[in-house]
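Thread: quick sanity check before group meeting

JM: Hey all, I'm pulling together slides for Thursday and realized we never actually wrote out the predicted structure for the chain we discussed last week. Dropping the sequence here so it's in one place. If anyone has concerns about the input, flag it before I start.
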Amino acid sequence: MARKTTRNLIAVLALSTATAALAQTPSDPKLEQVLTQMDQASQRFKSATADFSWDQFQKVVEEHDIQSGKIFFRRTTKEVQMAADIDKPIAKKLVYSGGKVQFFQPSINQLTERDAGSNRADVESFLVLGFGGRGHDLLKQWQVTLSGEENIGNTQTVRLELIPKAENIKHIFNKVVIWVDPEQDVSLKQQTFEPSGDNRTALYTNFKLNGKIADSEFKIKTNSQTRVVR
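JM (edit): ok, ran it. Output follows.
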């Protein structure tokens, strides 16, 4: 996640979605089949690692901010955890664990923290979007449309277009598109679109599912000189 994307994530933490609309009932039989496949795969999902490339496009300046690294997801009996190790072009680390988002910038030795608080369930559903979540849970917060199928690499994916139901979230993202392998319940590609015209394209490759991930991946190492911003 680029700096702008991280700021958007922190903005999501500050918004309450407690008044989300009731889940829709899909009228498309194919969509219902895909969501059911995701539900079934979600029951088997414990962890995932993948390589990523994030391309953040800023319309005003017509610039692309491209970052790459490795991402980790883990579901325990208590919580969902996510970590992203950005290694190019500048090392950064993003962690969600224990209901808290942490973003560390080693180059300036600064750690930014935000507690999810009462929005924890909403934040976790956003973080794991397309990674091990139940398909039908998408219907609680998004208007979901199946807009086709597409091969990405050697994997057959379905393309789901998501429009947020909550008006406050629409101010951050007015549409999200995910290319999902419903049999594994992971997304190989994601696009997020903002009202400003900015957008982000994420590509995920080299998946490893349900392997052991070290606890250290979900922790950030700081020192006595680290500046902490909350």
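AS: nice. Helices lie at 3-14, 29-44, 120-127, 138-141, 167-170. Confidence is low (pLDDT under 50) at residues 10-21.
JM: adding both to the slides.
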